[in-house]
Design goal:
By secondary structure, this protein is α/β, with parallel strands linked by helices. About 40% of the residues lie in helices and about 20% in strands. The chain has 15 helices and 23 strands. Helix 2 packs parallel to helix 8, helix 3 runs antiparallel to helix 5 and helix 5 runs parallel beside helix 6. It is globular.
Length: about 500
């Protein structure tokens, strides 16, 4: 009864939730210049929860002009770092204050369990903003070791107008990874959220103004990638694009830079992360739980998902039996139920993509150990069971392409060298893991795998202090940590002749 009451409470709040659906430009909400809108769908029901302003190039022009004015007037860009810090700390605190509203909005918009939105996404976003707020007045410039009759100052200045294009899987958290360092360093930002999950971005723009951010410093233009996203990336007055999304669109961002003003392009793209379990793994149960959560958490909609399990042939059966059992205990449920561990796929198109990959695995000769079906169809929502394939070969699509759903591909190996070769034999290089009790093996794997993060005896460990990003076609640059500050600044040398 207690669980039912909690679920009923979230449903009741959802029925009265006031959603922001217009673009946020120059400190106020406004409809798209064309007056056009697009429907926002609740993935758990398949029903509309609002009509969102469909921004186009005209809206992007207005938003960029607003951001440029705000940057040039210096109220934010030339504000003392300590003063920016205070405003961003208020921004973070207001996000925490509105955490239940924002968590509910995130769950209705994207389909993830309310417990995840409440405990992971919203607190993580607030912490990110606060961390960069605290960091910005503790970062020093440099003086070069030049001869005694010269003085060379090395300083970092805000790049200007930042276009941030973020994905739908962690809408507010991914936005905060861009907003935190970009705003802390004094830039103005135009944020283009995914059309699949724009709602929390639109709400926090209002919260930012309440915190004291000057009008025009933070603008939000909802819309489609081929309209608002393309216009932002091609804009001649945008100095930098920070993008998280697919590798296919990431390549397009690089093209847009060459076609426009050679703006800085920072990419965090897809992944097909290998999770290597050696025969000497110290705790097989722990490794199995980490492997299952590494692919089933957030419905598998994670660029760093542990989507490839590379397991030594001697422990394959025991490892897979444990993962299958965990997956079968994680049946998709109502995202508004606090007990739900697996929610809905973000929309019907993505669900069909996931189901298409599952069918590809079947036809390709892989063995479907568990799952593989759409479930809860009576809800009208887009739910897919946790799915496990074994007998997967490296030439299969499910072994090489990013599924972005709760689908695990298990492959076996005999030797460490074979495992490393398989791990590196994809175009991606975002994350990887190795499970072993041998320290030398752990170091050899970490040095040999071409990935931005290598986990040892864990998976998806996370902290704002640690950089995140990939090698190869998983992108460039890093989100999180002090390293992210560099993306949003220009390095300047001022040479002074003292002779």
């Amino acid at each position: 009864m207690k669980r039912e009451a909690k679920t009923s409470n979230w449903r009741e709040r959802a029925s009265t939730l006031q959603l922001r659906t217009e673009a946020f430009i120059d400190g106020k909400y406004q409809p798209a210049a064309s007056g056009e809108t697009f429907v926002c769908i609740n993935p758990a029901t398949g029903k509309s929860i609002g009509q969102i302003a469909a921004c186009s190039s005209r809206d992007v022009d207005v938003a960029v002009a607003s951001a440029r004015r705000a940057f040039e007037d210096g109220h934010w860009s030339r504000m003392a770092p300590g003063s920016r810090k205070k405003i961003l700390l208020r921004f973070s605190e207001l996000i925490r204050k509105h955490r239940e509203e924002l968590a509910l909005t995130e769950t209705l918009d994207m389909g993830k369990p309310i417990s995840d939105s409440l405990k992971i996404d919203i607190p993580g976003a607030a912490r990110c903003i606060a961390w960069y707020a605290e960091a910005i007045d503790k970062v020093y410039d440099e003086i070069a070791p030049t001869p005694h009759d010269t003085l060379a100052l090395i300083t970092r200045e805000p790049v200007g107008v930042v276009g941030a294009i973020v994905p739908w899987n962690f809408p507010l958290l991914m936005a905060s990874w861009k907003l935190g360092p970009a705003l802390a360093t004094g830039n103005s930002v135009v944020l283009k959220p995914s059309e699949k999950s724009p709602l929390t971005a639109l709400r926090i723009a209002e919260i930012a103004i309440e915190a004291g951010l000057p009008e025009g410093v933070f603008n939000v233009v909802p819309g489609f990638g081929h309209t608002a996203g393309e216009a932002l990336a091609l804009h001649m007055d945008v100095d930098c694009i920070a993008f998280t999304g697919s590798t296919r669109i990431g390549r397009r961002m690089l093209e847009y830079s060459g076609r426009s003003n050679m703006k800085r392009i920072w990419l965090e793209c897809g992944g097909k992360s290998p999770n290597i379990v050696m025969a000497d793994v110290a705790d097989l149960e722990r490794a199995a739980k980490a492997a299952a959560m590494g692919i089933f958490f957030n419905q598998g909609e994670m660029c760093s998902a542990a989507s490839r399990l590379l397991v030594h042939e001697s422990i394959r059966d025991e490892m897979l039996d444990r993962i299958v059992a965990i997956g079968e205990s994680m049946a998709p449920g109502d995202p508004l139920d606090p007990a739900t561990k697996l929610g809905a796929i973000v929309d019907q198109a993505q669900m069909n993509t996931v189901l298409g990959y599952i069918e590809s695995g079947r036809k390709g000769g892989a063995n479907l150990r568990s799952g593989g079906r759409r479930v809860r169809e009576e809800s009208g929502g887009f739910f897919v069971e946790p799915t496990v394939f074994d007998g997967v070969q490296m030439d299969m699509r499910i072994a090489r392409e990013e599924v972005f759903g709760p689908v695990l591909s298990a492959l076996t190996f005999k030797s460490l060298n074979e495992a490393v070769k398989m791990a590196n034999d994809v175009m991606y290089g975002l994350a990887a893991a190795v499970w072993t009790r041998d320290l030398a093996t752990a170091h050899r794997v970490a040095k040999s795998i071409r990935a931005g993060t290598v986990f040892v005896n864990c998976y998806d460990a996370d902290d704002i202090t640690v950089p995140f990003g990939g090698f190869k076609q998983s992108g460039n640059g890093r989100d999180k940590s002090l390293h992210a500050l560099h993306k949003y600044t220009e390095l300047k040398t001022t040479w002074i002749d003292l002779s």
